[in-house]
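Quick one, T. Sequence first:
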Amino acid sequence: MNITSDLGLHAERVSPYAEDLIVDKDVIHRITSLPRQLRHLELTQTRGRLWAMRASLVAPLRAARETWHAVRRFGTATHDHTGVSVTRQFIWLWWLNLRYLYDYETAYFYRLFSWARAVPQPLYVPQSVMSLMHSGVISFQSHELAAILTDKRRFASWCEERDIGTPKILMEFKSGGISQNNVGDSLEPDCDLFAKWATGHGGADTQRWKWTGEQWLDGESRAWDFNQIVESLAARSKDGEVVLQPCLVNHPALRDLSPNALSTIRLMTTRRPREGPRFLAGVLRMGTGRSTADNFAQGGIASAIDFETGTLGVARSLDKHNLTHEHEIHPDTGARITGRQVPFWHQAINLAIDAHHKLGEMPCVGWDVAVLEDGPVMVEGNWDPCVKLLQLATGTPLLITEFARAYAAWLDDPECSFDDNWLLEQRGWRPLKDQAGDV
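Structure tokens:
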């Protein structure tokens, strides 16, 4: 069964492996059944088999209660936006929750209110399932690799050692002071500056200062000297470690698509056991408003990139009601998005594939690549990449792509033992305790 025509998708334009996007029912069942399997094991282990049987009997009522709260929160806005009745929303959300433990936010993200989108299995991967599978594979294979991708300082050193272009870290801050100074006591950088958490995610609490030739200006046009910036970041580091870097500037062809933030390409690559990495798909993230980050979580928008030509499709964003909005022009600058050519597109793909090759046997990585005037540079790697970003922007469920086949290969790999103990032990594993995926 070829699902792409049923969903009205154009997956063949965003992935080089889309010519044979056929639903593999066995693979999909294994992946979508993981949450139910885990819940049953948790109940059996903690409460006993009888309690697990009782929970199964009352599951329809539990699903109805959770669905009712979700529909009360999002139902009216979804009806106004899509025309789907609140009753129909309730029926589909209840069924998805009961059958697959599908969380309601994911169901609203992808508008799973129709037979083609939700039956026989929901093909969009929830972030919770992605994290469960990914952390399980990593627990057998690549703890150290995940830690490299989690810590911006370690990642910058890793890139430098392997000749992968990436922005330098000028200074590091920890516990209220400077922990590493790569600038020098008597020198000051003469460029725009950018600060972020050393192990943060989702673009939270980023800061940017523009260099005027004499001083730095923040987003409120307030003047700073370098000592003030250093003192401010040192004070901030009492709440968590911070890094200061040069602020990169996008290629001129992209600058009107992200007025106050660096616009990055999210490139997802996958890797089967003992095989080379494969490029899956890429989207361009664009900042909006006064945000200094281009992440979805900071109000950004994202557009799928045509694999062959490097041109942008329609951009998508999410509002507070989990509704998707489409943008052919940038909401702030009025610049046209659709049809825009991304410079150095294939060089960016090669950069991500090369980085994954050098990283090793990580099953899936989300690479953030910035396209500058002289070419692409690696900004970050994400060990547990946001599947919502890729699936929303491309309109393509990951379970009909190479993503599903790659994870099926890992689940079948004899070097990994995916049994009941694995499900229970690895469900909350993180390379760092405060790391919770990116957006």
